[in-house]
Amino acid sequence: MPRLFVALEVPRNAAMSLSLLRGGLPGARWIDVENFHITLRFIGDIDGRTADEVVDRLDRIERPEFQLSLSGVGSFGSKKPHSIFASVSQAPEMYALQAEIERICQRLGLPADPRKFTPHVTLARLRNARLDDVVSYLSGRGNFYSSPFVVNRFVLMSSKESVGGGPYVTEEVFPLYEGGSSFGLPAMEAHPR
């Protein structure tokens, strides 16, 4: 079974904005534009039966669509940076969706994700990049931002075992319903139950 993870897709216009950040950093292996995403929950290698249960439970999630934007760049690994990322806006709906997905995974017996959820889009993986080069790269791009975009679905993706960065395959798509509160309408009025 391939490695699975739940993610939000980055729309083409935001991905094209991110692509302008590529280059200018020795030791960086840049992620292909079509592989940009925001990981909500890494699941990993699981058997087919468990994968079917994950899909069944994710398919029952009923949450409103919401808006996100990308703003600023940073790196993971303070003294020895290992990746460059774009930050994601702090949307309460995204955090609620991520928390529900985490609860579902734990109820199915998957171990809790040991890392705190830090929404981001990985732009590059670093190998032997000098800290000074990373600092210089980040300082020249700190004012990056994308136009807001609507997130109207989340996806289950798979990746082949590799060094990271794709290629990724969308295995399942889970729609979010229209009328989220981020568009000026309370969710309950926009989508009565």
From TrEMBL:
NCBIfam families to which the protein is assigned, alphabetical: 2_5_ligase
Pfam family, one: LigT_PEase
Protein transport recorded as keyword: no
Source organism, top-level taxon: Bacteria
Official protein name in the record: RNA 2',3'-cyclic phosphodiesterase
Similarity comment: family membership: Belongs to the 2H phosphoesterase superfamily. ThpR family.
Keywords: Hydrolase, Ligase
Function: Hydrolyzes RNA 2',3'-cyclic phosphodiester to an RNA 2'-phosphomonoester.
